[in-house]
Amino acid sequence: MIALILRRGALSLVTLFLLASFIFFATEVLPGDALDVSLSADEIANMPAEVMARRKAELGLDRPILERYWGFLGGLLRFDLGRTIITRAPVGEIIAMPLRNSVALAGVTLLLALPVALAIAMAAAQAKGRAVDNAVSGAAIIGYSIPEFVTGLLLIAVFAVWWPLFPATITASTNDPLGVLLAAAPLAIATTIIGSVAYLGRILRVGLIEVMAADFVERLHLSGIPRWRIIWLHALPAAMIPGLSAAALYAASLVSGVVVVEMVFAYPGIGAELVRAVTRREVHVVQAIALAAAICVVLFNLLADLGIAALDPRTRR
Amino acid sequence: MHWGWMRRGVAVAEPVLQVRALCIEWRGADGRTNRVVDGVSFDLAPGATLGIAGESGSGKSTLARALLGHCRPGSAITSGSIRLDGENLASLSEPELARRRGRVMAMVPQNPLASLTFHMPVGRQLEEVLRLRAGLSAKAAGLRALELFGQMGLPEPERLVRRYPHQLSGGQRQRVVLACAIACDPALLVLDEPTTALDKTTEAQVLDLIRRLRMARQGAMVIVTHDLNVVADICDQVLVMQHGRIIEQGAVGTVFSAPREAYTRGLLGAALRVEEASRATHAAPGPTLLEVKGLSFRYARPSLLRRNPLGPPILDGVGLSLARGEVLGVIGESGSGKTTLGGIIAGLLGGEATAVRFDGRPLPGLAAQRTREQRRRIQMVFQDPLSSLNPRRRVGDAVMRPLQLFRGLERREAARCAASLFEELGLEAALLSRFPRQLSGGQQQRVAIARAFAAEPDLLICDEITSALDASVQAQLLDHLAMMQRRQGTAMLLITHDLAVVWRMAPRVLVMQGGRILEAGATEAIFRNPQNPYTAALLGAASRAARAGQGVLAGTGDKKPL
Predict the structure, then answer these.
(1) Which of A262, B86, B196, B471 is most buried (CB neighbours < 10 A)?
(2) Please, which pLDDT band fits residue B69 given cuts at 50, 70 and 90?
(3) Above 60 in pLDDT, residue B523?
(4) By the CB < 8 Å criterion, does A64 face chain B?
(5) How far apart are CA A5 and CA A11, in angstroms?
(6) B414 CB contacts (<8 Å, ≥6 apart)?
(7) Phi-psi label, residue A170: left if phi above 0, alpha if psi -120 to 50, beta otherwise
(8) Cα separation, B51 vs B239, whole angstroms
(9) For the segment A128-157, what is each residue's pLDDT rounded down to a tens digit?
């Protein structure tokens, strides 16, 4: 098991290194440099050549590409993500709070959505093919296939306009304490929970139905083992295995920013920050956010792999 | 009082299990019902052992589950009664049944390989039954589990309890399941196909264990099987089922020595026996077609650090030669490397390119590197016909494809050719337009054989082609295979763990163990006078089961206690 953790960990680091390199070359090198990208065509045309050269030198863009690449990698090792082009502020500071806010939103969502999805999946699997199951499955497909901006706008229309229980958009600002921020964002949280419950519930239901028909479940049933015990101790761990990878990727996508939800509710998360950075052509911020998203995906994948190894002794070696 | 004594005397002989006019129906998605158990009645006395025999689909497994009051979702007991210790299981509620399951009646389900929870150590699974069903404390359950594992003949119980099911062999898993079932010493123990998934030597050992349990226990036993050798070996009563009905029942000796029904006679005749003279005919030795010299094989192990680390040897210096039109049997237990050997010759696994020569020329390791002509000349039939046929294509298309691909026939011509192949294999032409799932196992396997012969191969590799089939279907299939082989003059590599198949089909045989060839020569000589102790053990295991069946057939069935 320890060997497996080390092996998967090493593999994750290699993946991250490749991803970082890809992000660097894709954003900084391929179509012109960071300065070209962050300026409009008019600005470039009107800027005197010596000003342009000075600004390139300030940003270090006059150095050869490999040197900059080493500088970028070295900066990553020191957790130095560079500075923004316009305000010269450290990128790390700019993305830290939005990242915290997005992680908080994802964490609260998963914490609330997982038990609900589990309960729904178990109810549906118990009554497979009957009215309860059909209703739940149908609702899950609808919940999963409606885009989040539609769910979000519907929630706003109902709970902020017709029946003004909650504010339509979030009044808290980026650096407020988490409690204040989350208390101001019930509709945003509800939107992500609806999507998550539908997605996770579907995965768990399929896994459970398959496992409940397995031979070992029938043997336990025929030995008179209580049903709750069969489900919790025997079936559920087995049912989670096939869905774990998909669920982990879903969780990673939540953490790395639900752009649409953050925009609809003006939630100050990493997704909103990414949109702002792209419109302002802040290459280093885009790089940092892309890297943060990549780390999320790799990390959750690693957790899913280790979770599978913990649940399924056949995959351990 | 005199009468009271008489009544007690009767009460002792009173059956523990009484089944009366039992009917079980399945309801399909379209609302139509299908009666799979139809008016079944029988009695079973305490300590008696009943064998329920019949082919797959005869309703015997459904009946076995009903003896524990369980019907799978979609099926239900529609009429009749099952009285166990005087209580009608058909009228008990689910919680009432749950209280009795494991204690009063217990089951060893069909597939021991999948019947244990794969993510839990086997010791904990037995302890769970002991704690929850036998009411032992955690500590007592742990000790009792070790004791039971020892009684089941499991090696090193202290270490084994911590292992996971996939780390145990098939026979060991079956012993664990058996231990769970007898943990509370139930009055009725139902075993559903207890040895079907096991190889011959393991089967004999597990049967030994079941026989010992039978002697040691007071309770009654029901054994569901398609293998009449098992019934003859262990049971004292037999019940033969067909299409959900009992067509014959009585003492094993009576029924087997004078079967009244044609169906029973067919089942008995189909149980192939080694004692008959070999029917395999010796073909005149032709020129060498296939030559394998010093073939070794290991699987690569995925690893980050080394480039090509290798696993343990699966094949180790294997050599053989096969003449045109010759049939060569390859026998051995599971894990002996016989399937790997077939896979390498078929080009499925890769392997050393120099080790295999076909028709005088070296044969590339992978099918993709071989010429189309080489691929046509070597065909293969697999163990599981259903998974070797594309479920979305009609079986006619499956047979026409090699005709069009290898022989360049037009579609209409290919269809005619496929129909005549079907006819030769005893399949109706109407089946051509069916999908694989709509055929029986025997029909599916004949389609796979038709597909292989459609390419007019020079070498046909058959890997355990009968082991997924019922006994009576096996015999038919082998007859058809032998006929096609003789007519086309195809050489055949017959890989099997079933000695009877080799005895019947192959004049020459190789015995494999641990990736090596232990013994090779004429089947008759090796079977009658094995030189190697492993071969002798393999043969002993098979013919003991067969002899027991024959002894009963001859009316001299004796049940010797152990």
Answers:
(1) A262
(2) very high
(3) yes
(4) no
(5) 10
(6) B400, B403, B404
(7) beta
(8) 6
(9) 777 888 888 888 888 888 888 888 889 989
> B558: how many CB neighbours lie within 10 A of its CB?
8
Q: What SS3 state is found at B244?
A: coil
- Report the residue from A7, A223, A312 with minimal CB separation from B101: A223
Banded model confidence at residue A72, pLDDT cuts 50, 70, 90: confident
pLDDT grade for A210, boundaries at 50, 70 and 90: confident
Residues A53, A54, A60, A63, CA torsion sign: positive
* pLDDT at position B10 over 70: no
Q: Tell me the chain A residues in contact with residue B70 when contact means C-beta distances shorter than 8 Å.
A: 218, 221-222
Residue B421, both tokens: 């192949």
Looking at residue A114, its amino acid is: L
Q: What is the dihedral of CA A91, A96, A99, A101, to 10 degrees?
A: -140
pLDDT of residue A169: 80
Q: Which residue of B has its CA nearest to A227?
A: B98
Extract the tokens encoding B384: 């599981």
In angstroms, the separation between the Cα of residue A26 and the nearest Cα of chain B is 28
- Considering CB atoms only, which of A7, A223, A238 is closest to B119? A238
CB contact under 8 A, B166 and A237: no
Euclidean distance between CA atoms B388 and B386, whole angstroms: 5
Q: Choose among B268, B174, B212: nearest CA to B49.
A: B212
| Residues B100-159 pLDDT 10s | 999 999 999 887 778 999 999 999 999 999 999 999 999 999 999 999 999 898 888 999
Task: Give the count of alpha carbons within 13 A of A272, CB side only.
Answer: 19
Q: Pick B500 or B541 by higher pLDDT.
A: B500
Partner A contacted by B116 (CB < 8 A): yes
B111 and A226 within 8 Å at the Cβ level: the answer is no
DSSP structure string for B290-344: EEEEEEEEEEEPP-SS-SS-EEEEEEEEEEEEEETT-EEEEE--TTSSHHHHHHH
Kindly state whether B70 is in contact with chain A, defined as any CB-CB distance less than 8 angstroms.
Answer: yes
Listed in sequence order, the residues at least 6 apart from A81 whose beta carbon sits closer than 8 Å to its beta carbon are A75, A90, A91, A92, A95, A284, A287, A288, A291
Alpha carbon distance B439, B453 (integer Å): 19
Q: Which residues of A touch B30 (CB under 8 A)?
A: none
Angle at A148 between CA A142 and CA A154, to 5 degrees: 80
Q: What are the angstrom distances between the C-alpha of B525 and each of B331, B361, B509, B511, B520?
A: 15, 32, 10, 13, 10
Distance (Å, whole) CA A39 – CA A109: 38
* Nearest neighbour of B133 by CB, restricted to A215, A224, A311: A224
Question: Quick check: B464 and B496 in contact, CB under 8 A?
Answer: yes
A309 CB within 8 Å of a chain B CB: no
| pTM listed for this prediction | 0.68
pLDDT confidence tier of residue B187, bands split at 50, 70 and 90: very high
Residues of A in contact with B65 (CB under 8 A): 222
Q: CA A317 to CA A61: how far, in whole Å?
A: 48
> In what side-by-side order are the strands of the sheet with B361-362?
B310-323, B288-300, B356-358, B361-362
Nearest CB to B102 within list A224, A233, A313: A224
Residue B109 backbone phi and psi in degrees, to 5? -75, 175
Q: Can you give the pLDDT at residue B83? A: 95
Shortest CB distance from B114 goes to which of A7, A215, A223?
A: A215
A116 in helix, strand or coil? Answer: helix
Using CA atoms, how far apart are residues B324 and B289, in angstroms rounded to an integer?
Answer: 5
CB contact A266 to B (< 8 Å):
no
Task: Determine which helix (DSSP H) or strand (DSSP E) holds B246, and give its type and residue range.
Answer: strand B245-251
